[in-house]
Amino acid sequence: MKKWIREIAVGSGAAVVVLCLLMGVDITSLVFIMSLIGLGLMILSRRLPFGRSFEVVGANNVDSGGIPLVTFDDIGGQDIAKREFQEALTFLRADEKAKMLGIRPIKGVLLSGPPGTGKTLMAKAAANYTGSVFVAASGSQFVQMYAGVGAQRVRQLFKQARNLAEQAGKRSAIIFIDEIDVLGAKRGKNHGHMEYDQTLNELLTQFDGVNSEHHVQVLVVGATNRSDLLDPALLRPGRFDRVVRVDLPDKEGRRKILEIHSKGRPLSSNIDLDMIAQETYGFSGAHLESVLNEAAIHALRADRSVIEPVDMREAIEKVMLGEKLDRSPQPEEKERVAFHEVGHALVSEKVRPGSVASITITSRSNALGYIRQNPLNDQYLYTKDQLVHAIQVCVAGAVSEELILGQRSTGAVGDIEQATDLAKKMVFAGLSPLGIVGKDIPQELLHETVTTIIREQEDVVKEYLAQCKTKLEHLTERLLRNESMDGSEFRSVLTEKAS
């Protein structure tokens, strides 16, 4: 009916304009007045940017199938974070009991952690866990060039969440704001654009208006990987009452994530998920999902119907270092790269037997070749010996080049940087000959100490590689022929040559 009325009105207006023109009437003032009326109507209907309604990424009844049926069981590797988050959701599931105990409803939960650890999944799981309406938005959607738009959109977001809950017959709604550090950054930093501060002020006001007396309970869930940028007023009790740390998963967590993402994928019986979890230290849930996806793609390219260990190994290296390149070094360069990588591998195997996962002289990203080490266990503290051994592995490539080919190359730049960082860590941890030092240590003394540490380890590595020069040459010859070998093959060749 409204559409018909609008069409009749437009048609009538056009007819009046045509009639006036035929009669020779000056309609300039009439057109100007009609334009003002039309502009006002567009503003009121929010069809222009400075009055436009907030665009919701997803606002659906959980029972309607709009939100993917994500549950906390589908999220692996975050047991502590899930437990803490579920505890904060209790008041939404047991509202009456919470009131009886005098519990003040939690208004906000901040999920903080590295990218790809499952913060968005946890927010969706929370909506399904509590049977709430779910509304998602990104921090960048709130701030634009028009003054007042951000604050208006914050008001619209909370209003829409409540309206959607009422329409769906729900008593609670979850508002998820991703990348909230864009919206909630510390005030006073954007001197040229006060819109940021106005938007944050409105969010704080809406937080204070979220109370248990309202028919619909609203919980704000924010996600960020830079919680240090947030305004202190946003983090105080009564706004974001809980800060849940969503960290990178440990080995057991990675194993659970691999199990979840391997469902429905035809894995070979030779694939050991425990070993893959061990080899993927530092990977997030998103990385692990990508590993399984890339492994399936690699199997498809090879025309296999089952994902084999070689596919998994290739996928891990691709996720870590990128796709293989068509770059073809000269034979002399290729030989140098092979000696360099075998030098790394020999010393790595010496200081920690079983640590070599693979060696290759195939180019990926900025690397002409590389060895991938296999961390035996997740480790968070390091001793002096462990740091010294890590420095030895770093310098082994350059020392190997010098021992066999007479001089070093620029291929060791990255290794030198890594060795320098490790040596500095030793100094500031009180593990160097200087003992305990402060951050204000003179740069000349720091440089001298770091250089001494690295040179001492170079001498140790040089002596060891000279003793096993035959093994070094034999393994390099094998690597040049095959271009890559996994850790078990490397150890097999090493044992064969030793015997």
Descriptive account of the structure:
With 499 residues, this protein is an alpha/beta fold. The protein has four domains: 20-52; 58-245, 3-Layer(aba) Sandwich (Rossmann fold), CATH 3.40.50; 251-321, Helicase, Ruva Protein, domain 3 (Orthogonal Bundle), CATH 1.10.8; 331-498, Up-down Bundle (Methane Monooxygenase Hydroxylase, Chain G, domain 1), CATH 1.20.58.760. Helix content is 55%, strand content 9%. The protein is built from 20 helices and nine strands. It has a six-stranded mixed β-sheet. Helix 7 (149-168) links the parallel strand 3 and strand 4. Helix 15 (331-351) crosses helix 19. The longest helix is centred in the last third of the chain and has 25 residues, at 443-467. It is elongated, with a radius of gyration of 31 Å.
Q: Quick gist of this model?
A:
The chain has 499 residues and is of the alpha/beta class.
User: Regions with pLDDT < 50 over 5+ consecutive residues?
Assistant: 46-66
Structural category: alpha/beta
Distance between the termini: 92 Å
Strand content: 5-15%
What share of residues is helical? Answer: 40-55%
CATH fold-type name of the largest domain:
Rossmann fold
